[in-house]
Amino acid sequence: MPLPKMPTKPATLLPVNEYPKAQPGKSPVRAVAAAPVEADPVEDLISGKAVPAAKSTRARKGKAAPLAAVPTPQGETATWPARAETGTVAKLKETDIAEPHPAKHKPVEVNVKSSTSRRADKSGSTKVFVLDTNVLMHDPTSLFRFEEHDVYLPMMTLEELDDHKKGMSEVARNARQVSRTLDALIANVDDDAIETGIELAKLGNKDAKGRLFFQTRLQNGPLLPEGLPVGKADNQILGVVKALAAEQPERAIVLVSKDINMRIKARALGLPAEDYFNDHVLEDTDLLYSGIVQLPDDFWDKHSKNVESWQENKNGNSTTFYRVNGPFVPSLLVNQFVYLEPTGAGETSFYAQVKEINGKTAVLQVLRDFSHAKNSVWGITARNREQNFALNLLMNPECDFVTLLGQAGTGKTLLALAAGLAQVLETKLYNEIIVTRVTVPVGEDIGFLPGTEEEKMSPWMGAFDDNLEVLNKSDTDAGDWGRAATQDLIRSRIKIKSLNFMRGRTFVNKFLIIDEAQNLTPKQVKTLVTRAGPGTKILCLGNIAQIDTPYLTEGSSGLTYVVDRFKGWSHSGHVTLARGERSRLADHASDVL
Fold first, then answer.
1. Where are the alpha helices (DSSP H) in 316-433?
2. d(Cα 351, Cα 295) in Å, to the nearest integer?
3. Tens digits of residue pLDDT in 246-285
4. What's the CATH number for 378-440+451-592?
5. Average pLDDT over residues 480-490
6. Is 115-281's fold the same as 378-440+451-592's?
7. Do 261 and 275 meet the contact criterion of CB atoms below 8 Å apart?
8. β-strand partners of 188
9. How far does Cα 528 stand from its chain's mean position?
10. How distant is the alpha carbon of residue 394 from its chain centre?
11. Which of 59-73, 101-115, 250-264, 498-512 is the least confident region?
12. Homologous superfamily assigned to 115-281
């Protein structure tokens, strides 16, 4: 049944005492007289103002909840139950009315502090953070990320670090790095100093103004509820937290752990526990730099005074530049894309890129239109505005580092491969395309793969094979033999490499594509980007909504890290692709599923 349309005249909420009671044997009430109210509650709900809901009578007297009268398209008045929880606040969003399905919202990472931590922040007192082992293994520098607060390490944390130090995995390397840091901190320190705390700023980390404490004695007596296994490492750490809280009731003792179940157990026992979020680049990924900004409609009215315009020949193409001055300029960044869509008939779109910023003066470069067939890249043209921006970055030899974000089907891999083939085989700007990606399986692992490095990586490169097939079919005049020869030539210029063998390498004049970069940690991204030699262009592609690596979130992903750190650099660029162009089926599936 279709939902009723939004009434043109706002409805009113009936007071509880004026709602007519149903009588047995009679049909349900179809229309009720609305009592006059001073303020219009539905208008307040739509505008976002809080309206106190009516008190619940269902729980106390067994009566029905109050109903709100809403006109239906047939002119009748339907009755919808209103919220009846005592002390709650009812709000209605415009999206709840306009959309036929419930509005889907992206889960926002909210780093909620414990009440103990919030009270300490309000009073200005320092806290003692008890670190779980997984925090140290996730971020080896976490010891120095707590500002003026103290850090406490239980003996069980050191035991677990010792258990995980063997091997060549990332976790083992982090455990060994933490052990070396702790060894440097306790070097040349008296036994009394260990009891009173070691200064964390001893190794030159000036931001760490607190002290490091070790567990030097066992707690006396059972502090946890009976029935919990004492030999379990998590329970022993919880016992240390409870013992510290009993010894120092005047200080805030907070457990920091990446383990969700550990935090749940701590909160169930009445102990304050928090997630470790000092490694997050952003609290909310909605604030992540998109690389694109829409100019206000009155931009030229406020910035056309003393405007300068000239043309230059860059990379064999004539390019127009504008030098503008105005109040909107300081909010821009170098290499950021700006656009202004037409508001009336006869106007054209304005797409440009910020090349220089000096105070309130900026130089804007008009973009090349890659949506036109004459500017196609290896037979590929831009299908939307964001793809046009991305191709301008990919085909710019002055841009050494490009990041492309976007959901599945937005064309990240296809655009990157097309730009790489055009600059390797046509303009000879680079001599080879190198493709790599993180080998994190979505389902169960299929075991060891036979063959060489490239043969082992080939099952992970199905996305590139699909895109190469599309690019090969774009040349319709070549025929089957011509396309086969072109495919062999392309294959000879594309090398597939594994991330495991990247350390120590230097790439010269390469077009390096890093796919699925959202599964990389910031440290792994640094290892890859620092491989670039002279004349090398690096592309990072990914979708931060599809992270498969444990302990990585949208805020702490390496892709989020490099997007935030590289913004504003004159030789890097970023574009967030917004529209899917794969097929109408894929676009509809991404919206409704």
1. 385-394, 412-421
2. 10
3. 888 889 999 999 888 999 999 998 899 998 877 777 766 7
4. 3.40.50.300
5. 65
6. yes
7. no
8. none
9. 20
10. 23
11. 59-73
12. 5'-nuclease (3.40.50.1010)
Q: Is 94 helix (H, G, I), strand (E, B) or coil?
A: helix
Residue 154 Cα distances to 158, 215, 228, 259, 334, angstroms: 7, 5, 19, 16, 48
Coil/strand/helix, residue 185: helix
Report the distance separating Cα 185 and Cα 171, nearest Å.
Answer: 21
pLDDT band, very low/low/confident/very high, at 133 (cuts 50, 70, 90): very high
CA dist., res. 197 & res. 152, Å (int): 9
Tokens of 443: 């389902």
Distances (CA, A) of 551 to 116, 134, 258, 288, 524: 25, 9, 7, 20, 14
The DSSP string of 95-107 is: HHHH-SSPPP-PP
- For residue 426 the two structure tokens come to 């046509």
Helices 260-268 + 233-247 axis angle, to 10: 40
Helix residue spans in 76-202 (DSSP H) = 94-98, 115-123, 133-138, 155-163, 170-186, 191-196
Residue with tokens 């293994």: 137
Q: Where are the domains of the chain?
A: 115-281, 292-317+325-366, 378-440+451-592
pLDDT in tens, 56-97: 333 333 433 333 343 333 434 333 333 333 333 333 343 343
